[in-house]
Recover the amino acids of this structure.
């Protein structure tokens, strides 16, 4: 703390005071003069000390957080980030898109990328995309609608598509009307729009932890205060949730109740119902990101929160990316009537409307039932991979590695013994041409953890067993030769 | 003020205090118990009076502003909105897309929409869209790239398209590299992304007034404080600008230097250079929204701020919507190197990436020079309409109506005599099946004004003269029979 006390700001300088403070703190952190996970002084303390307005401190801290130098834990304070893992953080944004996953190699040097076995990416492989079918519907739309296919579409979305989606939802026990459906340019945009519509400066938002950090980045960009709730094998930790509901008034909670990303866990129906009860009792919305419930390798049909929602508190987001074609940028939301106006305005200021052509083509695709055919094909392929990896995991994974196998989806979540660093394991795997997704990519605070995710989205069935066998060997070697790292974090309350 | 002093908040109620206050103030405003344009008490005064935290007042005021009940004028305070014009405001968002322009009828009842002459919309008519050409390039991409056309694209945009855009820009005297080009899903998204990247809570942003209120809505959604600078016939009022630069430190100024929307005015090259000098001197960015400089009915080529930018302070946004096909949702930005990282992150959290298929198709469209051919065709058509309307305006517009004719573009801006309400004129016109765009749609504070805009984007050449003749008659009648409304606002410092 002494070094911070020595900071002086120059009020005669034309440079903003908060930027001066930002630079000073950045220097101290980068030079390791303030150690990782050190608690920073409170805003009031530092404002008094430096004789500046508290907003100067707030702005400097926000900037430092945005750049990955510090992290905030609500109720606990502000802490210095471990900047040695900063490169990992900078790549988090790319994780879902797999654009630069190979940059994650950090200080590892690897020469031949071509043989890499990719258990890290969740992006589907293009050989699964129904290009020929989609080309037919695209051309049909162009011939039928001509210029109208390129006019602005209503911000809420193409009416015929909204109706077709309502019909499609009936088989999922979701009964809603087209007036509640909103078409968006992908699930990520849905999260962004909802944040615009619902979050004001300083509002509290709850999320599962670990979770999809593309959502966290949006909440932070709206200056929300994020409160994490741990997830267990049967869904979110309701005791922790209700405890925190007594202290905070969240605008919403962001959850993935089916095949949660990254854990693959699913909520029991009892937990789903209880969560909705709590939303009603404590008056908050639930954002249900249903990115993948269609992919159900074990036969019983999945429930969704929305199908159980009798109080109109669930905001349902469904993307077509993960099981269809990510580059389409198409998804939809079901929106409670209470927030209709806010959502329409937020969509409008975001990009006015989603591509009219793509909406019209996808409408035909749904209407002609080509979609169903596609889902069945994809499910067959993924189920095969699912069965293969389950068998391989049981066969090759060292016994010190703990896991709970999901009933479907694309993701599998593992825990190293206490104290081992998944970031370090990642580096070792990369050296041997295997990519895994370390838990830091899914932690709300991007801390290094002892957990990692494997995905079967970007890997061919015949690579799986070889890949897992090799991974098993690498892990065995890793556990033997790596010292425990006391910083690696547990994301659970005693799950194992 | 007495009524406000009577407000009491119930701290034992589970309802948020700020929502209680919001409801109380809303009631007072809706019931007309607080008159339009009344100044509200300061945050500190009300916080003391109600014995609550100042953030309660801030949140309530923000909410009231978002819902259109109040408006803030920086440096002056917070004022009650004229809620009788609230319906007009609610339709502002639809103005650019022309989706619900006909809802703007307010209390006017009209039966037969079909014969409406539309001078209000700036959306191009679908009969100008090059559907057949675009269909060819779309199919070429599908055959060539197959599944790759539907994978995630890099957040920055498809590299080949970025390169083609650099080549295209050379003829506009803009020399830049593909690493500075960012592909976005329309200009509106560009404004949204820049706001995410640059605006923090409470930052100041400068804009022209009148302006494109789709931009204002974004700045407000990021809780920016907006300072308006009047625009004159030769560009922004530099004296006013520099005066305000001494009091405020804006993050950026948002401008349309060519054929400004709604006025049609263009900056002189001297003003352009001076603006860039000021940006350098006072250290702020300039967002140049170049929505239409290609449409140049009077032959001399247009300058852009970006082509004159030697200090890398200009952020250039170019949409293809207004002159191509709005439903494509495609635009690009040129980004100063200093904000590269912020912009990439903001794009990523907004929608990950813009449609890969559309980017690839548009790349071929540019590469094969079909784009040039299209621009030339469109320019011929618009120039014809431009010449027609200029002639009609001179012939039919009552002499009390003031205007300065632009050298190109699609928009023409008129002023009623002092004190007359353009909202009222709008209603009268609508009754006679003509739509115009009243100035309130472009005012930063959505106030009723004495100005209105006519556009030639959505009207056929052969309707123009009849339309303007009829409009001239309506205006003559209006001026004779309508009392002056002292509330209607002047958007200029003595332009006429």
């Amino acid at each position: 703390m002494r070094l911070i006390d020595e900071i002086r700001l120059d009020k005669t300088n034309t440079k903003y005071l908060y930027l001066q403070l930002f630079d000073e703190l950045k220097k101290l952190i980068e030079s390791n003069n303030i150690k990782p996970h050190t608690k920073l002084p409170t805003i009031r303390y530092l404002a008094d000390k430096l004789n500046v307005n508290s907003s100067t401190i707030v702005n400097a801290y926000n900037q430092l957080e945005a750049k990955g130098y510090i992290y905030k834990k609500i109720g606990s304070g502000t802490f210095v980030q471990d900047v040695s893992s900063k490169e990992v953080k900078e790549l988090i944004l790319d994780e879902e898109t797999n654009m630069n996953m190979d940059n994650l190699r950090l200080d590892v040097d690897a020469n031949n990328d071509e043989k890499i076995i990719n258990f890290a990416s969740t992006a589907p492989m293009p050989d699964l995309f129904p290009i020929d079918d989609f080309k037919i519907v695209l051309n049909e739309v162009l011939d039928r609608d001509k210029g109208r296919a390129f006019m602005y579409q209503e911000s809420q979305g193409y009416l015929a598509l909204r109706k077709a989606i309502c019909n499609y939802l009936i088989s999922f026990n979701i009964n809603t009307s087209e007036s509640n459906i909103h078409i968006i340019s992908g699930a990520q945009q849905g999260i962004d729009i909802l944040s615009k519509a619902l979050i004001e400066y300083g509002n509290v938002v709850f999320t599962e932890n670990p979770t999809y950090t593309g959502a966290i980045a949006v909440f932070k960009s709206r200056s929300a205060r994020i409160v994490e709730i741990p997830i267990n094998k049967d869904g979110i930790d309701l005791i922790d949730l209700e405890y925190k509901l007594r202290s905070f008034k969240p605008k919403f909670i962001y959850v993935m109740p089916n095949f949660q990303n990254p854990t693959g866990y699913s909520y029991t129906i009892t937990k789903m119902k209880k969560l909705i009860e709590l939303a009603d009792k404590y008056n908050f919305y639930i954002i249900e990101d249903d990115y993948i419930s269609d992919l159900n390798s074990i036969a019983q049909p999945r429930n969704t929160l929305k199908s159980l929602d009798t109080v109109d508190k669930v905001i349902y987001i469904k993307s077509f990316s993960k099981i269809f074609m990510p580059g389409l940028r198409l998804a939809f939301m079901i929106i409670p009537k209470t927030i209709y106006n806010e959502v329409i305005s937020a969509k409008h200021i975001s990009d006015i409307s989603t591509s009219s052509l793509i909406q019209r083509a996808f409408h035909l695709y749904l209407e002609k039932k080509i979609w169903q055919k596609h889902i069945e094909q994809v499910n067959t392929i993924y189920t095969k991979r699912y069965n293969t990896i389950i068998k391989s995991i049981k066969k090759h994974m060292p016994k010190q590695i703990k896991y709970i196998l999901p009933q479907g989806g694309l993701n599998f979540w593992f825990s190293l013994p206490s104290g081992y660093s998944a970031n370090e394991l990642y580096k070792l795997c990369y050296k041997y041409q295997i990519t895994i997704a370390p838990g830091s990519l899914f932690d709300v605070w991007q801390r290094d953890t002892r957990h990692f995710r494997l995905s079967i989205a970007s890997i061919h069935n015949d690579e799986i067993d070889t890949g897992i066998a090799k991974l098993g060997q690498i892990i065995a070697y890793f556990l033997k030769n790596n010292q425990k790292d006391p910083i690696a974090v547990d994301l659970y309350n005693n799950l194992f």
